[in-house]
Write a structure and sequence with these properties.
Layout (H helix, E strand, L loop, with lengths): L4 H19 L4 E5 L4 H14 L4 E5 L8 H11 L2 E4 L3 H13 L6 H22 L2 E3 L5 H5 L21 H10 L4 H4 L12 H5 L3 H10 L5 H13 L18
Parallel strand pairs: 1-2, 1-4, 2-3
Helix pairs in contact: 1-2, 1-7, 2-3, 2-7
Length: 248
């Protein structure tokens, strides 16, 4: 597979500039920072496109976060403003209210609620600081639904949604980001497992399948296909009832 990271990086920077000219001239780019490759690359792209004074990093731990210093280091490396918005009290409050109403909280609820609270926090910062919220999802994660609808799957503009994990890393290296940001092993922050452990296959295998259609392991291929089919709704517009002409 041939991928010209330098060219693609330049085109994304140009696209971000043009997007802000049309949809938020003079606004800040608001990026949720985890210290991982996606948020690191998006923040760096926004800095190159808009200047460091127009990029705001928001760190959103759910209580204690063992690797939060990596996100702090990224903001300092890029020279951007950073704020810490701890979502723990909001998370605990909602869980307590659900339980008080006799609602049994499912594991999936516990997994997805923090992502949605973080997106709400990003929009609160954005609206308070003349911003536009960056989506930091990549193609590989979107392909298998490894994103939360109205959580990390939301945002106003999405620089990486057409790039695989491997391609995002290449962009990061072209941006001269240190390895600790580009190559940081992604974890879910909940059960201590890596993303790849949760998925049951590596991003290398997934990326190759996305770009070439080749996957030697039939079981993994079937799993990827199933995840892709079952999670396509996350990327589609909300289904709506439409009036026919004779109803209007």
């Amino acid at each position: 597979m041939s991928f010209d990271a330098e060219r693609v990086k330049n085109e994304i920077v140009k696209w971000i500039k043009e997007w802000f000219d049309k949809n938020g001239r003079g606004c800040n780019a608001v990026v949720g920072l985890s210290g991982g490759k996606d948020s690191s690359v998006v923040a760096a792209l926004c800095v190159e496109a808009l200047g460091k004074d127009k990029v705001i990093g928001v760190l959103m731990p759910n209580g204690e976060q063992s690797d939060i210093d990596v996100a702090k280091d990224l903001a300092d490396f890029l020279g951007i403003r950073r704020y810490i918005v701890n979502i723990r009290k909001a998370y605990d409050g909602i869980i307590e209210q659900l339980e008080a109403n006799g609602i049994k909280v499912q594991n999936q609820t516990s997994f997805n609620l923090p992502a949605r609270l973080r997106m709400s926090s990003l929009y609160a910062v954005s609206q308070s600081m003349n911003g536009r919220v960056a989506n930091t999802c990549n193609l590989s994660e979107d392909w298998v639904g490894y994103a939360t609808k109205y959580g990390d799957g939301a945002g106003d503009f999405s620089p990486l949604s057409e790039l695989t994990v491997n391609e995002v890393k290449q962009i990061g290296r072209v941006l001269s980001l240190p390895s600790k940001f580009v190559d940081k092993v992604p974890i879910d922050g909940l059960c201590g497992k890596t993303d790849e452990e949760n998925l049951g296959f590596t991003y290398e295998v997934l990326d190759r399948y996305i770009r070439t259609g080749v996957c030697e392991d039939d079981e993994i291929k079937a799993k990827i296909d199933r995840l892709n089919k079952n999670n396509k709704f996350k990327l589609e517009p909300m289904s709506k009832f439409e009036l026919t002409e004779d109803m209007k």
